[in-house]
Design brief:
There is one protein chain. With 242 residues, the chain is of the alpha+beta class. The protein folds into 2 domains: 56 residues; 136 residues, Jelly Rolls (Sandwich). The chain is built from 5 helices and 12 strands. The protein has a 4-stranded antiparallel sheet. A 4-stranded antiparallel sheet has the order 5-12-7-10.
């Protein structure tokens, strides 16, 4: 059996085996630092569980220091590694229901980004390919209508935005601008797809939480639309005094 035909399973921190995956997927996970050297990996060729760093086919992908992955090749892009404790992510509303092990796994799929006041995070109409979770700071979502900025929402610690872009990679619906120094966790569409494929038991509760949040927002928007229609009809029914 050649390397391309091998199939592997990974024993995750959620204590569930994920797989099967091809060798190329296993290498990609190691290069993105989503496969710690101590992770148990099962190879269906030799029928044995081994730590990732002990697999001959992954030789050279890990440093000699325990728990640290090396940069595997020139040109490989690795996500910024967040220097965060998993428990600190519980301030994010959609992550509050995850346990410590699940949060530790989730950290492998995010990037940390810092924004200064008056800096755009996203712009309306631009291609969207990531969602953001607010870890620190404050931002505003707004649109320019008739040349004036109209603030749609203020985003604070625990909030998130851009979740639709993770699903459809469509254009952004509004600007999001930092009001003060802010720290955000970025989840790219590609990283989220990797999460769904590699750790489905973690992706499932996240998708449920996202769905509930989207439903709440739709209900709020529907109510606002109803109120605006009611106001317009009432205003139109009142004739000016002549």
């Amino acid at each position: 059996m050649d390397d391309g035909a091998k199939r592997y399973w990974i024993w995750g921190q959620d204590r569930v085996a994920s797989g099967p995956m091809a060798f190329s997927e296993l290498v990609a996970a190691a290069r993105r630092e989503r496969l710690p050297r101590e992770t148990w990996v099962f190879n269906d060729q030799n029928r044995v569980w081994l730590p990732a760093a002990s697999l001959p086919e992954l030789e050279g992908l890990f440093c000699s220091q325990p728990g640290v992955a090396s940069v595997p090749s020139v040109g490989t892009t690795l996500a910024a590694r967040p220097a965060l404790r998993p428990g600190s992510l519980r301030r994010i509303k959609i992550l509050a229901g995850l346990d410590e092990a699940q949060l530790a796994v989730f950290l492998r799929y995010v990037e940390v980004e810092h924004f200064q006041p008056f800096t755009h995070v996203v712009r309306a109409g631009e291609h969207g390919d990531a969602m953001y979770l607010v870890l620190q700071g404050e931002l505003r979502a707004s649109l320019y209508i008739d040349g004036q900025e109209s603030i749609l929402a203020t985003l604070t610690v625990g909030d998130f935005f851009g979740e639709v872009s993770v699903l459809d990679q469509g254009p952004r619906s509004a600007d999001v601008i930092a009001n003060e120094p802010s720290v955000l966790l970025k989840v790219s569409a590609a990283a989220f797809q990797d999460l769904v494929r590699e750790v489905p038991t973690l992706a499932a509760p996240l998708l449920v939480a996202l769905s509930r949040a989207v439903v709440r927002r739709v209900r709020v928007l529907t109510r606002r639309y109803q109120d605006s229609i009611h106001f317009a009809r009432v205003a139109g029914a009142v004739s000016p005094v002549r």
